[in-house]
Design a protein that fits this description.
The protein is of the alpha/beta class. It has 3 domains: 164 residues, GTPase HflX, N-terminal domain (Rossmann fold); 165 residues, P-loop containing nucleotide triphosphate hydrolases (Rossmann fold); 52 residues, 2-Layer Sandwich (Alpha-Beta Plaits), CATH 3.30.70. A 6-stranded mixed β-sheet has the order 6-7-5-8-9-10, with helices on both faces. The protein has a 4-stranded parallel β-sheet with strand order 2-1-3-4, sandwiched between helices. Strand 12 and strand 13 form a beta hairpin. The longest helix is centred in the middle third of the chain and has 36 residues.
């Protein structure tokens, strides 16, 4: 796992291109020390003095706003929330997915964030000693840090510091395989890096130095910003081309009455395994978080013989960085245009309700929360037998195990029932036996209930989609 600042600055200069997962896999593992913070915030509704508010620095305002958001959530007991320990466990899984070895962890309980260092100078020195004794190469904060907070912490601990957003961006960079995925990750990295350029030391001094060169020349900071802005414009233009191509492909698909079904869910809920089970595809299915970044679309045949397109998408996570949601909007448009959303949940996870709440938040941000939706509770094979036997499917929820191929037929039946595209109708046909192509097409794309032969004709009672009925209209008997 490499520093995001170093990777992005090299990309801007053109000296380094994205190295795929194979290259990343050969990098030596770094020892990471995890840092979590649990804020016990004051009750909502207590106003702060105007004088204090006006004197807050930008770092203090960000810390105050973060505390306010967490405090608002705590006043809604019905909304599932991650505890500090559960959040730290998730950070551990993220760090492992990034290729790090866990050297230790530190969880601090505070009333509110410290504007300068987030956790306070005393605790920071204590944590620095623990990190040194564990031979940690870097500190991973389960929190977003401002540029000044990150610098202040690094001065004390004398170790590289990475926040949660930077860690997720690093995982995305390791797992992006297609050109589209790499572009989207690069855009998110550049937008993350841009506000963190200031105050990086002597390299940000004036370009001129010495007798005869002093003057109001452009600073290195301004030069770097200009290069990043130029690169961001270029990447956005390329992503816009990707969106245009995707829109053209979508128009061609929509000209044929084939519905799209999008798989969404928390990261590591088993979406790719379910995708493979339904389509017999060979998409990478991994227990690592964010193993799937690049969208994949495959056809699946439903029990009614209709075709549907199944789309596998990137997993969601709590506090998904906004830069990632924006950068991956071209990919997530498949969710917005889907006729049906399969919301996949990990039935074996004790955090299933909290994870579903985070998925709901991202769907709202994508304006897709009103789409027809079917809940798919996956991984039931990991439940105790007694609990598994008590599960009951209903009109909005199906219980499956994608790994063990349990409940697949029930799931396909429910998808078939919920799709309104290319509606199914019962028809009675009389087809000449010489119409071999028509009979073969009916055999392949319709559900046939009866078949009789008489005087060179074949009488059929069948259930067929509207697209098929239109092609055999001349043989339909009223």
């Amino acid at each position: 796992m490499r520093s995001l600042d170093t990777r992005a600055s090299r990309r801007i200069s053109g000296a380094e291109r994205h190295s795929g997962p194979e290259t990343a896999g050969r990098l030596p593992s770094e020892r990471a020390f995890l840092v979590g913070i649990d804020y016990k915030l004051r009750a909502r509704g207590v106003s702060e003095p105007k004088t204090e508010r006006s004197s807050l620095t930008s770092g203090a305002r960000l810390a105050r706003d973060a505390a306010g958001r967490a405090g608002t959530a705590s006043t809604h007991p019905n909304l599932p929330q991650f505890s500090a320990e559960e959040s730290l466990d998730e950070l551990r899984a993220l760090a492992t997915s990034a290729g790090a070895q866990i050297a230790g962890q530190f969880l601090q309980h505070r009333d509110r964030p410290d504007p300068a260092t987030l956790i306070g100078k005393g605790k920071l020195e204590e944590m620095a000693g623990a990190a040194v004794s564990a031979s940690a190469d870097l500190l991973l904060f389960d929190h977003d840090l401002t540029a000044s907070q990150q610098r202040n912490i690094e001065k004390v601990v004398q170790t590289r510091v990475i926040d949660r957003t930077q860690l997720i961006l690093d995982i995305f960079a390791r797992h992006a395989r297609t050109r589209e995925g790499q572009l989207q990750v690069e855009l998110a990295q550049l937008e993350y890096l841009l506000p963190r350029l200031g105050g990086r030391g002597i390299e940000m001094s004036q370009l001129g130095g010495g007798i005869g060169t002093r003057g109001p020349g452009e600073t290195q900071l301004e030069t770097d910003r200009r290069k990043i802005y130029r690169r961001i414009r270029h990447v956005k233009e390329q992503i816009e081309n990707v969106r245009r191509i995707r829109a053209q492909q979508r128009q061609r698909r929509e000209s044929v009455p084939v519905a799209t079904v999008a798989l969404v869910g928390y990261t590591n809920a088993g979406k790719s395994t379910l995708f493979n089970a339904l389509t017999q595809a060979a998409v990478l299915a991994s227990p690592k978080m964010f193993a799937t970044l690049d969208p994949t679309i495959r056809a699946v045949t439903l029990p009614s013989k209709r075709k549907a397109l199944l789309s596998d998408t990137v997993g969601f996570i709590r506090n998904l960085p906004h830069t990632l949601v924006s950068a991956f909007r071209a990919t997530l448009e498949e969710v917005q245009r889907a006729a049906l959303i399969l919301q996949v949940s990990d039935a074996s996870s004790p955090l299933s309700a909290e994870q579903d709440a985070q998925v709901e938040k991202v769907l709202k941000e994508l304006e897709a929360e009103r789409k027809p939706r079917l809940r798919v509770m996956n991984k039931i094979d990991l439940l105790p037998p007694k609990q598994r036997d008590s599960l009951r499917d209903d009109a909005t929820c199906v219980h499956v195990s994608a790994m063990k191929a349990i409940g697949m037929s029930t799931l396909l039946d429910r998808i078939d029932q919920m799709l309104s595209d290319d509606a199914i109708s019962r028809i009675h046909l009389r087809v000449p036996q010489k119409e071999g192509k028509t009979l073969a097409m009916l055999e392949a794309r319709a559900r046939i209930y009866s078949r009789t032969y008489k005087d060179g004709l074949v009488e059929l009672e069948a259930e067929a989609p509207e697209s098929v009925v239109r092609r055999v209209r001349e043989f339909v008997i009223d």
